[in-house]
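Lab notes, practical 5.
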Amino acid sequence: MPTEEELFAAVDTLLAGEPALPGPAERSRLREAAGVTQARLAQVLQTTTQTVKNWEAGRSEPRPPRRQAYQRLLEGWAQQFPADAAPADAASTATASAAPGPGDTAPAPTAETPSAHPAPAPDAPPRSRTPHPEKAPHPRKSHRPAHRPTPPPADQRFENGPLAVIDVEDGHVLAYCVGGLVLDVPAKSLPALIDWTLTEARLGQPRLHRNGRDGDPLLVLTPAALERYGLPTALSDEERRAGRLPDGHKAVRQLTRADWKLTRRGLGPWARIYRPAEGAKRHCVQLCIPAWNALDAREWDDRNAPRLPSMHPADLARYLGAYAERVMTPRGTAAVTGLELMTALHPPTRAEKDPVTGAFTRALNEDALTAVHDVVECEVPDEHPLLKGRFARHHLRTPAEMLMEEPYDWCRPLTDDECMRQYLVAIDVNMSFAAAANGLTVGLNGPTHLTGDPPFDPSLPGSWLVDLSHVDLSRVRVDGRPVDGGRLPSPFTPKGERPTGPAWYATPTVAYAVELGFEVAPVEAYVRTRTGRYLDAWYKRLRDAYVTTMADLGVTTGLDGAEFLDAMARSRQSDPVMALLVGAIKATAKGGIGKLRQRNRGQVPYYEPWPALERETWRPDIRAAVLANQRIGLHRKLMKTAAAADLYPVAVGTDAVVYPSPGPTPLDVLPRTPEGKPVPGTFRLGVSPGMVKHQGTRTVLWAEEQFEEQGGVFNIANHIKTDPAAGEGE
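Output from the prediction step:
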């Protein structure tokens, strides 16, 4: 036991504060004046050369016991090599910086506070760390490069960003954060790592909506970190099938003994570790484990040339950190995150104060999805419990029994005139599903069943049983011009075939038939009476993320057609990390819409409820409306293009359109006005969602050879790619 005098002496030392080190520039000057290299200094202090560079750049501070040794060395050098004409000596400079100003950060780290190191990525800006006031009773000096000041973070609770990549280098555990910041991690066990994250790391993300909740901190564990914390670097076949470690695993038992809990998905590729919330304060950390396939290449990587397995932790932090800041902190797959983003932007509930009692109660938000409603037979997939006993096990439901709103998958033979053109040019629509969600009115409540031949009301989202087989595109005039309906896909079926009788359609599809000038007579309908543009904020968030990231690659809005094509070609070699981010944003948009009708996929036996059905966001009617709007929007442009330039597609695959062309680029085929502008209503080259880019070019001869090899016409739309790096359509 320490004596009273020893304790008082220790407290006096703490009150006085540790001796201030000279500023970063002075540290470098003194070392150079002594003729000592950074490598030699690192050897003497038993650290790394990079760490010495950090100290001299002001990106981090030494920790005890090296701090005391470094201090003694610098004081000795200062006596030997005094500054000739300094405006103030090192001590006064340090004293002046000891009390941080409004934009300042940063005391020297102690055993209780993480220290900052720079990421090795050359483009990562340096960043210092502000201590938590409860963890640093006495302010210490802050050094920051004068040429690049760091603005104060918007939310001091999360000043180190939304996430960290945990790695081990030379026996030291490091947390790579956004902005080039690297923190020392003192935690020796997995429970201690969770404690450190919640008490000292200052990670997390402010809520996206005032009625929502803050984003929990995310830790991405590298294989080296997995080994350090007693986790396997790869899952066994059984663990991979289960998607988690067994409950008896040592790491799981450690968490349990420390009173940490796991969600139903357990300790798997995406794990949530928590304790019950205390009022509004959450105690939750999420783990992402890429070695267990948390970052599936189909969403997060380049399938043609995978980059994640060899990516440095600093680059991985930059990649996922940019995704978190522009979209949101990942909460699972990109598809899961896309769905979670909808809820984060439109929380179902809010706190409401009772005017009588003053107590806060939970109230529902009218602009959100707030409950699990009854489902409609025609809108659910084949394995849904509602269909149990209704159809035979392998019965194929007809369009009159099932809502079949899906993207296009259509192709036709080329005409003789089209075969005379040398090329087939494929274009694809940027962020087509997100663009289709923009401005779309969807239902926010449960269905109302309309019977007895109800009149069609385009303001009511839902499903309508109606016969559209009488719609003949050849009878339609666009801007006063007719079109050849035989060379266009039908707007009412994914395969582009003309319907043959009554079928279920979403509201946008029926509304398009009316827009084309045809009468519609529904037999019955399931509609929603409480409506809203629920997906608008979701679209805008993803649009801004996509456009900002493309700008990072040198592709900006406002470019004309030729400039845009040149910028897109250069972007493929511009920044590999940001190129991956573009793909992840697109996967988030596409996957989020798909999650609105998440299927069983073998989770439970056929006709038994699966977990997704418990979500307020399991809304197949909304997914159908978005897909219908995407297909109809594409068809509207096909009609405009056909009328303006007598130009017809030969294939459409989801959002990719193939046109015969006399030249190899979209500029050779897309119609323009006499002034050189795109014809209004047709496809327009550009970076914004809803505009198009060049997907690839092939020759007409290539297509004919493909048809001959396959023994008939098949959809060539997604097989035309000039460069695999161009990516695929959505």
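Observations recorded by the TA: The first helix runs from residue 4 to 16. The first strand starts at residue 116 and ends at 118.
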